[in-house]
Amino acid sequence: MVLLDRTFDRTLDAWTHAYLAPAWRGAVVEGWLFEGAEARRAAQARLAQAGVTARFRSAYKPLLHYFLEEVDREGLASVVVRYPLHEHAQAKRFTLEAYPLVALLEGARVTMQPGASDLHYDVSLTYADGRKIEERVYAPNQLGRAQDGTPELSPTGWLRVRDAEGVPQIDAAQATEFQQVFRSIVDTVRGHAWGAHEPYFDRLEIRVDLPGIDFALPVDEEIVSTFEALHEDVYFSLLEHFQQHSGRPSGDRGLQPGQIIPDIRRHDGAARVLISLEPFAALAPVAPAALATPLAQVREPLSAAQIAGCMAAFGGDTFQAVSRQGRPVLGTYLRGPGPAVFISGAQHANETSGVVGALRAAQALAGRGDAHFALIAAENPDGYALFNRLREHHPRHMLHASRYSALGDDIAYRERAPFFEREGRHQAHAISGAQLHINLHGYPAHEWTRPLSGYLPRHFELWTIPKGFFLVLRHHPGWGERARRLIEGVTARLARNVPGLVEFNARQLELFHAHALETGFDVLNGIPVQVTESDREELPLALISEFPDETVYGDRFVFAHTVQMETVLAATDLHRNSGA
Questions:
Q1: Which residue in 62, 76, 242, 269 is a FRET match for 41, CA 20 to 30 A apart?
Q2: What are the C-alpha distances in Å from 386 to residues 390, 399, 418, 484?
Q3: The CATH number of domain 309-380+421-578, selected from 1.10.1760, 2.60.40, 3.40.630, 3.40.50
Q4: Are 550 and 444 in contact (CB under 8 A)?
Q5: Which pLDDT value is given to residue 518?
Q6: Rounded Cα distance, 539 and 428, in Å
Q7: Which tops the pLDDT comparison, 213 or 249?
Q8: Please, what is the Cα angle at 454 between 448 and 457, to 5 degrees?
Q9: How far apart, in Å, do the first and last CA atoms of the chain sit?
Q10: Would you kindly state where each structural domain of the chain is located, as residue ranges?
Q11: Strands 76-83 and 109-114
């Protein structure tokens, strides 16, 4: 069932065509929009041939693009940035929008200072040869409203034009095709009659083809992508709509709307949006497959067949649940002495280093001959299948549409039967009697934004830029002392046993502090930690690892799953020795 099939003119083409007319010879045109540098420069060149002076800039991360495209960074000694403050934006909003400028300008002293509310960055550049340059960098934004009425200050297209006599003709926000596409998707979904009962559909497919920005930065794993940003904004905006439609509070993870799939692709022409409701596709059986290399050398996320092959190799007492789409959730239990632990990965299926880390740790424990654990290496196979589908087009994106299940919920927050994937946890708990759940997670390896909904990812503001590998430990009342000993022991062992981990964390934390204007979590033995008392977890102790792995490959992926493995081994040994 098709809900929308619509095209939108390319804003850059429309502006170029409009000002090619002879009447505009001698005019000056400034525009901000969501296009890459190459396309913007080509449009400037066309207008220059017609006698029009044009400068087209990026409306997305304008200060970063200013330094990339307009600043001579050679010999730059110091930079002072006075960033905008606005009553409808968090104080850190515009310092985060400048990320990762501090790292990009390595060698120069960068100072961030609060400025005025007029949506300009005031920039002072000082060079080693004594030159000083003062510039104002416009950050075009407009005020809108979130689904619940909260004000949102969001980047927008903007156009300024002076005619040949220098008389201003326009200086106003413009709805670019990037914004029009987003608005058409949200409005279409809001306007549809969804009924009163979850789930509202099997799959909500949203295919978008449009121009945009997508490039890597020479800073760690950073990329700048309007395609990724639109994916994230569409996905979470629609979750927010269905939360409201269902009467749930904003951010509720138990919501089961169905599977929302934004598929955003580059197209250098008019933008097109196709929204349709689709049934779940028939599944082909997955035969277990052997790995071509040892797990320790795996440099990219495993396939479902490879995961099945690794799980089958353990033997033990196998158990399984079945996902919403009919995929097996594979588990195994290895009996042994001492207290058991429950090890899991890919609760959020776009967090893939934990899958390999869990399998490597289980191999090591089994090889010692005294293993006692229940293992589900990939808890969310439907999400994992979507992740692998989407990363064919955008291998480095975070792809949060694959984070949750095919029901659209976070499986750990599933509220009622049928429990589908969560039934695997129930079986693991029952068969093992474990009191410690080691739950391996990840988070974005580069900046996470929602530029059309206030820029920062709502409810996930703490996760917007990487801050190294860290640990979250939740414990039931009365388990505080054991939790303290566990987190102290695990962090000390990781710092000692994983070469480069403390240094990796220090680098990422330094950049996080520079742009987020906060310290984040407490740091223990060089590893950020958060320990909370909560009865939400089913087991008395839940150790949650967080490595910035969305989505990394090669040496970084090996490092990620090594850290995950060592976390499991450290926690398992400490738990056993505690006599719990």
A1: 76
A2: 6, 9, 22, 38
A3: 3.40.630
A4: yes
A5: 83
A6: 11
A7: 213
A8: 30
A9: 55
A10: 11-177, 179-278, 309-380+421-578
A11: parallel
